[in-house]
């Protein structure tokens, strides 16, 4: 758990530091087929909210192992194979809720701090509960948290490339 929380903190800090120095004039810029940086950030936030909701739920289904998909496979799918675009479900598409970086940073930090608190107090436990992912299928709580980290890393690289 402690190792994961360290990775979680590093992931959060890296995103916030990257966008802190992001050129304001490029924040809403986009070509016709891609999201703006502010939309990417909102997508990360929405995805984190959904994952938080999922891992907070009870499940009657449990795995015999802590991971089904696995950290390495998730990193490969989400980061190493970032050029393979997936269709984003409507639920996870940005809606224009964040108008500036301050609003995003505040909401994102609050959500990440809530998740971290729930992990450290064991309100959310790393156990073998299974919840389905719409593409990857069955995933354990550990898989879901690794997904959160690598999903953020995927889009962080996208943001860094757009500077």
Structure overview:
This protein is mainly alpha-helical. Helices cover 55% and strands 5% of the residues. It has helices at residues 2-20, 37-55, 71-80, 101-120, 141-162, and strands at 130-133, 137-140. The chain has a two-stranded antiparallel sheet with strand order 1-2. The model has no long low-confidence stretch (mean pLDDT 94).
Key phrases:
163 residues, mainly alpha, Four Helix Bundle (Hemerythrin (Met), subunit A), two-stranded antiparallel sheet, 55% helix
Can you summarize this structure?
By secondary structure, the chain is mostly helical.
Q: What is the averaged pLDDT score? A: 94
The spatial strand order of the largest sheet comes to: 1-2
Helix and strand run: HHHHEEH
User: Strand percentage, roughly?
Assistant: under 5%
Largest sheet: number of strands, sense, barrel closure: 2 strands, antiparallel
Number of domains: 1
**What global shape is seen?**
globular
Known CATH architecture: Up-down Bundle
CATH superfamily: dinb family like domain
Cα distance spanning the termini = 34 Å
Low-confidence stretches: none
Radius of gyration: 16 Å
Annotation field: number of helices: 5
**What portion of residues is helical?**
55-70%
The CATH first-level class comes to Mainly Alpha
Task: Determine the structural class based on helices, strands and strand pairing.
Answer: mainly alpha
């Amino acid at each position: 758990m402690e190792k994961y929380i360290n990775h979680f903190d590093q992931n959060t800090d890296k995103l916030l530091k990257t966008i802190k120095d992001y050129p304001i004039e490029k924040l809403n810029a986009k070509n016709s087929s891609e999201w703006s940086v502010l939309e990417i950030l909102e997508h990360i936030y929405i995805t984190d909210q959904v994952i938080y909701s999922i891992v907070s739920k009870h499940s009657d289904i449990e795995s015999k192992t802590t991971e089904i998909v696995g950290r390495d496979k998730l990193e490969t799918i989400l980061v190493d194979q970032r050029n393979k675009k997936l269709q984003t479900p409507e639920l996870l598409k940005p809606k224009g809720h964040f108008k500036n970086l301050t609003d995003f940073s505040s909401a994102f930090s609050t959500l990440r701090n809530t998740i971290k608190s729930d992990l450290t107090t064991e309100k959310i436990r790393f156990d073998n509960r299974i919840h389905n992912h719409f593409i990857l299928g069955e995933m354990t709580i550990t898989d879901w948290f690794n997904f959160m980290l690598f999903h953020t890393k995927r889009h962080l690289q996208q943001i860094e490339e757009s500077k």
